[in-house]
Amino acid sequence: MKKQSKPWRPFTANCCSVEDKTIFSNFSRCRPSRSEFSKDVAPLPSFRRLSFSDLSRSSSTRINEDLAQSFGSDLHDFQLSELRAITQNFSSNFLLGEGGFGTVHKGYIDENLRQGLKAQAVAVKLLDIEGLQGHREWLAEVIFLGQLRHPHLVKLIGYCCEDEERLLVYEFMPRGSLENHLFKRISISLPWGTRVKIAIGAAKGLAFLHGAEQPVIYRDFKTSNILLDSDFTAKLSDFGLAKMGPEGSNTHVTTRVMGTYGYAAPEYISTGHLTTRSDVYSFGVVLLELLTGRRSLEKARPKSEQNLVDWAKPYLTSSRRLRCIMDPRLAGQYSVKGAKEMALLALQCVSLNPKDRPKMPGVIETLENLQHYKDMAITCGQWPASSPKSTRNGFSTKVRMESKGGYHRKSSPITPSKKA
Ligand SMILES: Nc1ncnc2c1ncn2[C@@H]1O[C@H](COP(=O)(O)OP(=O)(O)O)[C@@H](O)[C@H]1O
Ligand SMILES: [Mg+2]
Whole-model pTM? Predict the structure, then answer.
């Protein structure tokens, strides 16, 4: 695995436990209003080491001082007025997307804005912070993406923390998210080779995080967080839920369950035990989405088809059955051998027992081998999504639903208790 020269060195070893035990649990039960949030911020102790927990409770001035001291010229601390200017006051005409925690707008930086900052297009995320939780997501992104640099992670250019406003400035990714390409009707279908390339790129990003000296668990691996460069190089973005992995002899970190239904690993949902293998499960779900062109959860489908993993599993072990669930938008233009191997890999990734899931370097190796297959399915046309199983259950699986049903905002915890 190729790492950038800058070593990954977490600012603090204990940031994660503090965040979950205090800030999240307190504020999920009783989320303060914005004004209460301002009253509650306490000054940092005189101790100057940058820490997640300290920053979670600091005033914006103090946070800016700490971030500037820690990141130096690696990250730019923008003023809100500058970001307003480059996005035409966050105009809806410049809207690139919207996730669980805010809107993302396109902006243009010209060479006169900041010394040492080249003219370029950027994406500006305006976080709807609503109390400490949004602030924490913003901070997680600054701390993780500010320190991690890799060709398969989106580059964070800077941030803005002014009063109660929290913004992030990233490199602009011209082809947007994988979600838009796979599921939006207006987009042209992604060819098979491009799907494999995207899977490899995203796997490399995840492998980099897991292979760090102290592993990072991404926790929100899904198509809307995989962004695409002009040549379809995949980069992971949105580190709002990222966590430091277990240390020493610990096998997992225990956290409040956060993430996205349909992608989160079952053992994490039921126990709150988070490991890098939870990310591998989500990776398997995305592989299934690439194969089938179906979303991980689609509430508008018949019950037995709503959960992609449950529905797809019986089809993954034979080429004949697999053919029935391949994305109709591929129109048969895919490598049969490649699809079969990708399906088997996906099946391993979504194993119920986390120990049966492969590690990311192994995943990359398998996917890279798929690139060499030149066999293409001989027949073209729409593939009916039917099988012996679906017939037995009496469901008509031939209709491809257009609905986006079942999609959950990323910031929602999986436990139903939060965010009423
Ligand atoms: N750097 C970027 N370049 C282009 N589009 C982006 C960029 N960052 C985000 N987007 C778009 O905005 C959407 C939401 O961004 P994301 O960071 O996932 O927000 P959230 O934290 O609210 O989920 C993405 O799915 C994508 O469509
Ligand atoms: Mg997102």
Answer: 0.81
